[in-house]
Structures are given as structure tokens and as C-alpha cells.
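To whoever picks this up:

The parser on our side crashed when reading a file containing two proteins. I've narrowed it down to the boundary between the first structure block and the second sequence. Both blocks are reproduced below exactly, byte for byte. First block:
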Amino acid sequence: MATAKNDPSRGIRTSGRALTFAAVCLGFFAVIMDTSIVNVALPAMGASFRTTVTGLQWVVNGYNLVFAALLLTFGALSDRRGGKWAFGFGTAIFVMGSLICGVAPIFPLLLVGRIIQGLGAALLIPASLALIAHAYPERAERTRAVAAWGASAGAAFASGPVIGGILVNQLGWRAIFFVNLPVGVIAIILLVRYATETATSPRDVDILGQLLGIVVLGGVAFGITEAGAHGWGSLVVIVPLFAALVGLIAFVVTERKVVLPLLPPSLLSHRDFSAAVGVGLLLNFGIYGQVFVLSLYFQQMRHFSALSTGLMLLPFAALTMILPPATGRLAARFGPRYIMILGQVLAATGTAILALASLHTAYILIVPGLVLLGIGMAGTQPSMTAAAMLAAPREYAGIASGVLNAARQVGGVVGVALFGTLIADKVHFITGMHTAMGIAASTFLIGAWLATFSARRPQTVLVTEIAVATTRSITR
């Protein structure tokens, strides 16, 4: 009898798993990189279509809004239809959206492409870890695979501004979308050839809750974004914000009555979990808003190239990729609570330094702010995720992780919408930027206060387990 070690089929299975993993990482890398690569191309897009800052906000948020609004529902759809089907279909939609963005002759078509990209991302992301869990059923191998998969997210986010800067400088802004095409096609080919379908489950979809969630998020994003162009007293702003308020009330009422709610009220009744989710929302609010503002500051106000802007943001981006394993170990040893508090205090300090920047501030004086902001995010993100997953009741593990990531995406959407409104007038750009940075710093301090309610005792968990908790949040 052939032993497992000498089994010739073992090499084939190992190869198939590795290529399935490669397919998942390729698609995931493209989706995450798209959240940062676009920022350095915004001024070039604005010049090409002669659009305003409000229009550029929609380039970013057209993607993030759809991603945030549909993440939970598409996670349920992935469970119903299978991870392979969802990942393949989501990647195809993402590639199609990228193609539309790349060839768009008019600005509205660019926004349509961004929305389609968001649809694909919302379907692709929840399925990616389901495929990894299916390919690596052994706990130790799965943990290593998930940790590597999570590291690819940091690499994608950090490399986005630099890759985007190179592409925009050498080939134009459309290249940042065309680069997704070969990556997506290769991922689909590997998936079809080597991946096997995951188990399915007949999870119901809370359609009413989903529709009300879209009304709330869409109303808030539209109202805040348009305030920069029309003023806070305009009906264009008041009506969507009022619709969002009504939708929120209806959402709360209906979620208490349906059998399988999109957002179980009993889950949010757990204080530790709710605090960690609040930290995640506030963190992304401040980070996404600042990256949007800084990209325009360096290019539109300081007149640096897209590549130079990407390199200038590198101290922040690189630290968010390099430090999480170390901060994860600290969270495992001392408890997530203290690392979250320290991380957000550092982020607030870095933001306060960035708030001092003017039109003629030397870059060397801006670097400490970017460094502290990067350290703060690297400390807060894994600790916050571990705290949320450790606090969530076992029966809500899947939905809790989805709620956490959806909340983070919502924070990013609102941050870009509000901060973009503050810098919409170029004449008062620096004043608006200072106000935005002040709000971000205050937000981080509020997050530090919220963290005091979460994860009060140290948890003896390995950093790889924290990585699992971090990335498990988008499997369903």
C-alpha cells in the first residue's frame, strides 16, 4: 500500500491547492489595490473630464459605497451558490467594470464602471476565504494560508499609490484600470482549472433589510458629498439625508421583527463587540478621508506628479504593511484593548502634525505625521479585529465578521464624502484640509475612548490566530 508520503496524487493535490490559492490572492490583490491606486490618479481624471472635487469623491465612493452596502448580502449569496461560483463571477464583474472605467469616454460612464467594480468586489471578497478554507482543511495549513492571504492585502494597499503613480506618469490614468484585466483573467483561468466548489448552505437573504441599508448608506453619502457643491441648506442635500434618517429608523424596526435579520440586534447588544466595530468605523473614516485629501494636496496644491505623490505617501502605506504582525503579537500578549488605545492616540498625533502642513511646508516636516499615522493604523487594525472576533458570540461568528468589515467600509465612504466636501473650494483648500485633519484627529481620540470598553483582558492567542480572525471577517 502506498503511504501518504509516497502517494503520487498528493503532488497533484498540492499543486492544485497552490494554484487555487494563487487565483484567490490575485483577485483579492487587485480588489484591495483598487482602494488606494485610484487616489493618485484623481487629479489626472479630473483634468481629463474637467470635473470637480465632488465628482472625484464619487470616483472613490462609487466603488466603496456599493462594496459596503452589498458585502453582507453577497456573503449570504456566496454561501448559497458556492465560493468558486461567487469568486469567479465576482472577478468577471470586477474585470468588466475595470474595462468600462478604462475606456470611458465620458465621466458618467466612468462612475458606472466604478459601481460595477464595487459589485464584483462585494461578491469576490466573501468567497475568497471560503475557497482557502476549502482548499486547506487542516487547521495549521489553513492558518498559514490565511495569514499569507491577509499579508497580500497590506502589500496591495501599500503598493497601490506607487504602482498607480508609475502607471499614470508613463501611460496615463486609464492604465490603472487596464492593469486589472490580465490579473483578473489569469485568476479566472486558474480558478476554473484547479479550484473545486465549496459546500453550500441555504442561507436566506434579508431583502428588505438590504434595501433599507442601501437607502441609508446612499442617502448619507449623496447628501454629504453634494454639500460641497450645493451647500448644506440645499434640497439636494437635505432630501437624501432625511431619506437616510427615515431608512435608518425603518431598518432598526424591521431588523427586530425578521427571523434572519441582516444585522442581528442581539449581536450589537454585546458591548465589547459594538465598541470594536465602532473603532473600525472611526478608523477607516479618518484614514480613507485623509488619504483622499493628501493625494489632492500633493498634486493639486503642491503640483507634484502622481509618482512623486505615491512615493510621498509610502511612509504611511509601507508601515501599514510591515508592522501588523508585530502589533498582532503585542495584542496577543497584552490584550487588544491597550494596543487599540495606543494606536489611535498615535494616529491622532500624526494627524495633528499633518494638520500643520501648508502650501510651502517642507516634506521632511510632513514625514513624522505620515509615520505616526501608519504606526497607528498598523496597531489599531489587527487589534480591533481580534477584539471584535473574540467578543462576538460563537453562534454569530460569521455575521459578526461581515458586520465588522461592512462598518469599516461605511466609515471610509463617509470619510471621503465629508472631507471632500471640506476641500471642494480650491481657494480655501488648505483651511478645509486643516478642518478635515482636526476632525480626523478628534475621531481617533473618540475611537481610543471607545476602545476602553473592549477586550479588557489579555488573550493568549497567536498572531496567526489574530490574522485568521482578521481575515475571517470577510468570508461570509
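<<boundary where parser fails>>
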Amino acid sequence: MTEKAGASDVIRIGTRASELALRQAALVESALVARGLTVELVRIRTTGDKKSQEPLSAIGARGLFTKELESALLRKKVDCCVHSLKDLPTEQPEGLELAAILEREDPRDVLVINRVADASSLADLPAGSRVGTSSLRRRAQLLAARPDLDVVDMRGNVPTRLKKMDEGKFHAAILAAAGLIRLDARQRIDAFLEPPDWLPAAGQGAIAVQIRASDERMRLLVAPLDHAPTRVAVSAERAFLAALEGGCQVPIGALVMPAADGSSGHILHGLISDIGGRQMVRGSRALDPADPELTGQELAADVRARGGSSILAELRAVANVLPPQPE
């Protein structure tokens, strides 16, 4: 049944309370206000926020930064939620859908270096440098490129991570370009980690607006925010992630990029790795814009066949990362 509401009702947007999350929610707020709507941001603390000192891989659940927002949406405490798409599990809870995916910001990872470190790139970092990250994907790629670095878990929001850098607790850190750009901190970027050699998380840099599937009014209100090229790209990336049973506990990267031959086509690049970066399987596949999910599934099947399934099996056996799944 379609939900109904009067035009004068306040639109309640669920969001995490971090500065970055609020800036992302404000993008949706501004677009709705520009259409004459009254909007309220509702701040919600998630499990990932409450356990900000624990490694993400140790907390162990999917939806660390989204579950509480989705619960509020299902209970009609809010009318929509704004998420960093890379935080959203690939499977939507029953009754919810992604009604809009905003145009993507720069999807790359970047290196931020402590001012006292004598380096300007990943290759320049002295052996033994402490590099902070909370991501197993980033850890694996760091260790594959520079096994002589000391990769240390780093949690907290972006300002907190930058503060830890400035206090000298780390020589460098890996962050998302999009977060720094949205926080007006582009000047802190010392080097971009260029794909496809270095791959970001599936959906990184994209913002998603989630609604109740029954709420036709909200679907119509946020539909103009949907950016079709971004949706196609991230659909392929997230299908790749889903087909590899991946979440924050599995080192998986994916990104759709323009074809290197200068044509109008795009290529989906993907990788899966063990946690130490010693075993890594990469692959790529031409993107079918008419069926991006199939592109992701086909690339995942290729990666599995060339060693990805063995990596997943080892992760399950050694770290109990994933429940056994039929191949």
C-alpha cells in the first residue's frame, strides 16, 4: 500500500552524527529544501559509532554503520536514510530500497602523510613506517605493495584520524578521497592511490538514499537525485562484492573505470586478497550498462575460478570470517 502524507509535512532524514555523514545528508537536505520542502536531520548512533575503538574486523557483523538507521526507517521514525554506499550491505532488508544514488565523488583512496615524515608517496615511506587504516582491503593492498610497513588499525571519524596523524601516532594513513573532499580537507591529500593498481571499496564515493519500498511519495521526491551513470557503475561493483560473499571482513576491491583504449566503454576491475596481501587475484571485464549486475557476477565467477574461492575458504577456516557456503 502506498504511503500518503501532506505536502506540508516535515521530511525526516536519518543520518549518522559524524561531521562527514551530516555533510552528506545535507546534500540531500539542500536538494529537497530547494523544492520547497521542510526537512529535519535525525541523528542516529550506529554500532560502528558506539564501538569506535574496536577494529571493524573484530566487531564481526555486517551493517555496522547502517542497521540502526534502517531500523528507524522501518519503524517510520524517519522518512529516508542517507548512507555512504560502501557501508551498505549488498542485500537490502525486506521492505527497504535504494531510491536514489547521488553523483559519485572521487572514488579513489589517498595517502595522508604526517608532516614530520620525509615522504611524499607510498613508495617514499621509510621501511617500518606506521600506516593507519581500519580496512582489511587497504591493509592487504598496503602489505602487497610494501610488506616492510607497519600497518596499524586506525578507527574514528575523519577528523579524529587526521588528529591522530598530527599527534604523531602514525606516519601515514589511507583514507577515502571523497571524505576529505566533502570535509573541505583536500589539502591534506599527499598522494592518490591510482586504480586499477589500487582498488577502492565497491561503491566508494557514492551516497545512497534509502526509503521504505511502500513509500511512493518519498520515491518521487528523491528520484531526481538519482545519477544514472553512478548507479550503473556501483551496481556492477556491488554485484561483484555480493557474488564473493564479501563485507568489511574480506579484502575485496572493485571499481568501474573508463576503458583505457579511449573508447566510450567502461571496465569493471576487481580483486580479492588474503589479509596479508600475499595471495591476491585480480580481474577485469567490460561493463554491460544494460546489465551491470551480470558484469559483476561474471567477473566474480572468473576471480573465483582463478583462486578466489581458495582465498575465501582460507579466510573462513583461519579467521572464521564467513559461514561455509556452497561453491
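After patching the parser it read the second block fine. The chain has ten helices and 13 strands. The first strand starts at residue 10 and ends at 15.
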